[in-house]
Amino acid sequence: PVLRLDGICLKFGDKRVLNGIDLSVVEGEVVVLIGASGSGKTSLLRCINLLNVPTSGSIVIDDETLFDRRADGKGAQIPAHEVNRIRSKTGMVFQQFNLFPHMTALENVMEGPVIVKKEPKEQARQTALKLLDLMGLSQHIEKYPRQLSGGQQQRVAIAR
Ligand SMILES: Nc1ncnc2c1ncn2[C@@H]1O[C@H](COP(=O)(O)OP(=O)(O)OP(=O)(O)O)[C@@H](O)[C@H]1O
Ligand SMILES: [Mg+2]
């Protein structure tokens, strides 16, 4: 598997939102989470890049254990500088796209590779152009999020 979650638990205050979720995803596999509104789908996805920090459970990406906390709360704590590296191994399309409002579609897609992964700008630009074209957005690369429809913004977020 490229991603393995084991026993992910998450609480918000006293409220138990996730109760021991296991999930394994192999390369190229497409997995769909289905559940009632408020059942915890977004919370689980946010755990994978530590936007939510699980109360217990483990996260393994590419055979590297990125997070492992036992039920008693003991276990490896992640140093702050490691969190960005962990996040750079994942991508997320937010439910409310969260595009950077002051950047064009193209700049939104280039930002992560250039700032976090230190890719040369021209290389990031070429990749971004390709991905935006795949999403049918070649006409819209210089537009700002507010100038795009909801579906177009969502596809920029997918390209990003
Ligand atoms: N930051 C938070 N603090 C407290 N409770 C939260 C927080 N975020 C989510 N919750 C609660 O956790 C539960 C799961 O929310 P989550 O957003 O994961 O649901 P979801 O399955 O993605 O729902 P939807 O289908 O509506 O997007 C909900 O009851 C929600 O109210
Ligand atoms: Mg949700």
Give a quick rundown of the structure.
The protein is of the alpha+beta class. It contains 5 helices and 5 strands; from the N terminus they run E-E-H-E-E-E-H-H-H-H. Strand 3 and strand 4 (64-69) form a beta hairpin.
Primary descriptors:
single chain; 160 residues; alpha+beta; Rossmann fold; 2 domains; five-stranded antiparallel β-sheet; 5 strands; 32% helix; binds adenosine-5'-triphosphate; binds magnesium ion
Shape: globular
Examine the secondary-structure arrangement and name the CATH architecture of the largest domain. 3-Layer(aba) Sandwich
What is the name of the CATH class of the largest domain? Alpha Beta
Q: What value does the average pLDDT take?
A: 92
Number of domains: 2
Major sheet attributes: 5 strands, antiparallel
